[in-house]
Amino acid sequence: MTIDRNNIFLIDGIGALMSALTIGGLLPMFQDWVGMPLDVLYVLAAWALLYAVYSLSCWRVQPKTTLWIKAIVVANVLYCVATFSLLLYFMNDIKPLGWVYFLGEIGIILGLVTIERKFIFTSPNEIAVF
User: How many CA atoms lie within 13 A of 46 on its CB side?
Assistant: First the structure.
């Protein structure tokens, strides 16, 4: 499978949108099973929605420089650091389902960051992922 420089934004944007909908729409209904406070869930959902708008906008505009990819890489890493920090801060409240969800999300995002970084440090417009 190959991903081109433009589709990476589409993949990132769809992933961020799915995170926003899950964290802001689904997880609050199961807050007792997740353990993350509701206000924190909504902040994380808003953050993910902001990233979705950014990435999907980049996908539509199709920027030619790597600056735009660099920005989303940094943003994704910051989101992962913030999420992990919140897990540690609320460690006593987070339930097993919350740990599984958020650590899984962090893993997926960092996997995407690894792919995005390939576009920053290599010149091809297309890279093989699998």
Answer: 6
User: pLDDT tens, 10-60?
Assistant: 999 999 999 999 999 999 999 999 999 999 999 999 999 999 999 999 999
- The CA angle 76-4-50, to the nearest 5 degrees, is 30
How many CA atoms, within 13 angstroms, populate the side-chain half-sphere of residue 121? 7
Q: Which of 88, 74, 79 is nearest to 106 (CA)?
A: 79
* Rg, Å, the chain Cα set: 15
pTM for the whole thing? 0.89
What per-residue confidence (pLDDT) applies to 123? 61
Structure tokens at 30: 């199961």
Q: List the one residue out of 72, 47, 48 whose CA is nearest residue 59.
A: 72
Q: Which of 76, 78, 98, 94 is nearest to 23 (CA)?
A: 98
